[in-house]
């Protein structure tokens, strides 16, 4: 196992991303055209579901919402756990909420839960068994980074430190409220405090960044495929990136990688 793969499996490290959409076929078409993903059927216990692959390696999950479920279409970041039940209890004891599970996924793939932090940001917990999670990250068309976007970092830092054991390192920059979260000295995620710029219609949320070769070109491609550019390509500490949404409104970030 590579160091990168081992890091993704550390309890607390982002290990998987998934999206629930209204039309699975349209969503597959969008991301297949944008990132070159191919799809294989996944577990159907909770409705139509597909796993996305790039170069034969698992990248993400896509599911279809039941017609009567009017939930926001959004990417969900899953954090690794060695014991989903114990993590769920820790979440509750630290002021968070567990909305789904813990429950077993298909065919001993793992055990999962959906939770939210004290500020309402939704995330998943994944205790991998036969399926450890994303098997390729950082390469073009795959998850490159996950960060919590919230009003201010201090309001939720204690929660994540206590539940997942993160060590936080502030980014020293005037007017920039950002913490990098480390596990055993490895950077695994971030918390970005954006103050009043936090979208009122979304509140605090976890954001998935996908690696692309050209952030400007990827943003243009998003619009060609029926999505929207929410924040045009710009340069930041992580590289050149753009915030976009897909054809159903699921928000994500494309970040330029060499």
TrEMBL record:
Residues 13-128, 142-257 form the VOC domain. This is VOC family protein. Pfam families: Glyoxalase_6. Signal peptide: none annotated. It comes from Streptomyces mooreae. It comes from the Bacteria. Gene3D superfamilies: 2,3-Dihydroxybiphenyl 1,2-Dioxygenase, domain 1. InterPro entries: Anthracycline_SecMetBiosynth, Glyas_Bleomycin-R_OHBP_Dase, Glyoxalase_6, VOC_core.
